Amino acid sequence: MSGGGCSVRAIWILTPHDTVAFSRRFAVVEKRWRAFWEAEGGGGGEGDGWAAGVTAPPQLPADHEVAAAFAVRRKREGTARGSGIRTSLSSVGSDSWVDDPITRHVISLHIAKEGSDGFMIWPVVLQKRGGYYVLVLPLVDPQSFRAYGNLLKRSDCGSSGKENGNLSSILLNLPCITGAFMVAHVIGDIITGDIVEPEVIVNSGPSVGGLLDSLTGSIGISARSKPTAAPVAAPTASVSSPVGAAQSESLKGGVRPFDKDILRNFIIGAMPFGTPQDLNYANVNSIRTTGYSGDPLPTDQKQPAWKPYLYKGRQRILFSSLETIHAALYDRDDVSDFLSVSGQVTCRAELEGLPDVSLPLTGLKTAHVEVSSFHHCVQASEPTDNKQTLVFQPPLGNFVLMHYQAPCNIAPPVKGFYQLSMVSENEGAFLFKLTLMEGYKSPFIMDFCMITMPFPQRRVASYDGNPSIGTVSMTEHSIEWRIVSSGRGLSGRSIEATFPGTVRFLPRTAQRTNSSFRSVSSAAYAEDSDSEQDNVKNGASLDDYIMEKINKDLQAVDLEEPLSWQAYNYAKVSFKITGGTLSGLTIDPKSVNIYPSVKAPAEYSMQASSGDYILWNTLGKCPTAVLPREI
């Protein structure tokens, strides 16, 4: 990743308790900021964000001033992000006054100063990761800063898409916003320990194939070797948790301490003097530990920043199509089912030197790809007929070649219906009737499939019922039906599965006593909810608060309408399928070309898994406007 067109003035990381856990300022960028203002004739105009007549912007605020300003904004807007919507309680000069949802992620902070009106810093990119708030302040031109200051004082709403002076039109002219989001994202990954390379799947051995595949496929059992992840060199420094005694330190206020030395070293290597050069953690870490490659390069080639050293060893190139299918299946005539596929093509190029790779994508017309984006090393041709060619100089290690979204162009892997009816306050009767892999032929293989009936507001006491296939287990708040177990895949034919039964819950009095005990034991973590419950009365419409309320205890439902959709109205399907794509977008490994020509085999694997794959209860009320997040 490259943050071209972006320079960062400062970075702050705040805790949920409004204290600064980490900060970094870049004096070189700050000097450029002050020079811009001097060249523009100072900040003496209306809406500048500080008092009129001041010819130079003030210094960056101290850490405690930033923390105080962030706390004030959170109280004023209702949450850390706010709603981005102007309400009757919005005040002139606040982000919600702009009436644009982007102000939930690109915010302003008003720094209070004794004896003056203070000043404003903008645009501050906000991202919440691991309980921390990552704030990144990029360098912008004075004209854009003044334009936002004017929006804060406008009497009319400024979010009209046809209006040139709205916030979106201002941000579109600021590439530094995209760069700042990238910086905030990778810092969040380091804080949470999510620095992992993308997965590239390869077969652990040759396919059995032939007669054995035909025999086992005819009875619905896979005999192919299982895919495994391509080996990745372990990083020299771990970022999953702090070093030393901090690893055993318990959560404090809902956040886990992070290693500031790792973050500080990354910032030094990735964005020297405040300008992002390469935000790939693996590359920055490799450069720090091993330095740049000393191997001589051809005189007509330049070594790209994303490949700091050259590969040596057995040559090959691996591709994987990894797709996730999201579905809401209603089994109703009056409600249409929802199916969507999001996918990515990952690559690992173990090639010596700096070769160019040409890769044709096929199935574009069949896949009906709606959205696609590519790695910055890729040059993509215009799609023609049913193909598109990608030319790229691959970086080291695993990387995502492209992302895409498309409809599911074949039948749902799991379809059927689910019914649940409460026969008493503490007992419900349910029925599943499902069909798996109908219309899927070899080489499609379903590695596993499991159905989960969640009951987040009730504790399960017991269940009765025998499924036609698979095994059943029970947890405190769910029943899990494993139809296809790992190690015995389903291939070559479809199967039908039924599961009638009853579920019994503990009485509510015993449940509430237990819930009270749990709420006391988790009080420390509850404080990490932005303390937003106190601020909801301010009138903001808040996604975070709504989702938090959904996950909390609901009121007892009446037997006349027991199927409160948050609590009982769906079953979740989990599965993994290998051997093909659900969108139809594929790669022909035989058509991969490498220049200069080398003997390097190309391997290709495909895998699809379930995301939010929901079977809605046909007896209850179904929300049809949106596919639910994890409830």
UniProtKB/TrEMBL annotation:
Membrane topology recorded in Swiss-Prot or TrEMBL: Peripheral membrane protein
Chief place where the protein resides: membrane
Location of the protein in the cell: Endomembrane system
Keyword set, alphabetical order: Membrane, Protein transport, Transport
Keyword Protein transport part of the UniProt annotation: yes
Keyword Transport tagged: yes
GO BP, sorted A to Z: protein transport
MHD domain location: 314-578
Superkingdom of the organism of origin: Eukaryota
Membership in a protein family: Belongs to the adaptor complexes medium subunit family.
Protein known as: MHD domain-containing protein
